[in-house]
Write a structure and sequence with these properties.
Layout: E1 5-13, H1 16-21, E2 28-32, E3 38-44, H2 49-58, E4 64-70, E5 75-81, E6 89-94, E7 97-105, E8 111-117, E9 122-128, E10 135-140, E11 143-151, H3 155-160, E12 165-171, H4 174-178, H5 180-195
Antiparallel strand pairs: 1-2, 1-12, 2-3, 3-4, 4-5, 5-6, 6-7, 7-8, 8-9, 9-10, 10-11, 11-12
């Protein structure tokens, strides 16, 4: 009997000003449940010449702060990405409490990330197999318990925006539900490091 799975949809939102001038100021996302109900917003801190120049010249290596807010405007998750040329990292916090981190790792033939708990212990890994550019497998040891997927939108949208859609589908297990904020953070780091600047559109699924 197959294990029930949970899903969340994460869709990158675009501002028309950014689309028209071709210069991004910050990443924005909307999070939806399986029924299509919006449950949260997320945005990279923007504004200021330094941040805009950082995006233009440093790309995914730039320092960034990402906030996730519920529908009342309350911050429920904060991601801090330090500047680094390689092996990008996103540390996740609930207020002042550190929840864990997502760390990109060295790999010859695939894209590999580990997800750490608050003590810095690796609890699972995310691997994109060779030539599977838009699929990232979620693994506990040798067991696959979920997947991150990137989906492409229609041709016309791809001509005018690089708004991305990502998501995670994962088994409805207590350990994974506790780590759900880290799974959401993993989607953001995958987008930053693997797809930022690509043209695409649509929506993603993150289990429910």
């Amino acid at each position: 009997m197959s294990q029930p799975r949970k899903r969340i949809l994460i869709r990158q939102a675009k501002e028309w000003g950014e689309i028209l001038v071709g210069i991004e100021t910050r990443n924005r996302y909307e999070l939806f449940d399986e029924g299509g109900r919006r449950i949260a917003h997320a945005a990279e801190e923007g504004g200021g010449v330094g941040r805009v120049l950082g995006r233009m010249f440093l790309g995914s290596s730039r320092k960034a702060t990402l906030h996730v807010l519920d529908e009342t405007g309350r911050t429920i998750l904060r991601g801090e990405k330090p500047f680094t040329w390689f092996f990008h990292r996103l540390e996740l916090h609930d207020g002042e409490r550190k929840l864990g981190a997502v760390q990109r790792r060295w790999s010859w033939f695939n894209r590999r990330f580990t997800v750490e708990n608050a003590r810095g212990e690796a609890v699972f890994e995310i691997v994109s197999p060779f030539l599977s550019f838009w699929t990232f497998r979620l693994r506990f040891g040798e067991r696959e318990v979920g997947v991150i997927r990137k989906q492409w939108g229609g041709v016309l949208r791809e001509l005018f925006t690089d708004a991305d859609a990502f998501g995670i589908e994962y088994e409805d297990l207590p350990d994974l539900e506790i780590l759900r904020p880290l799974l959401i953070g993993a989607v953001f780091l995958v987008d930053f490091t693997c797809f930022e600047g690509n043209q695409g559109g649509g929506a993603a699924v993150l289990g429910g």
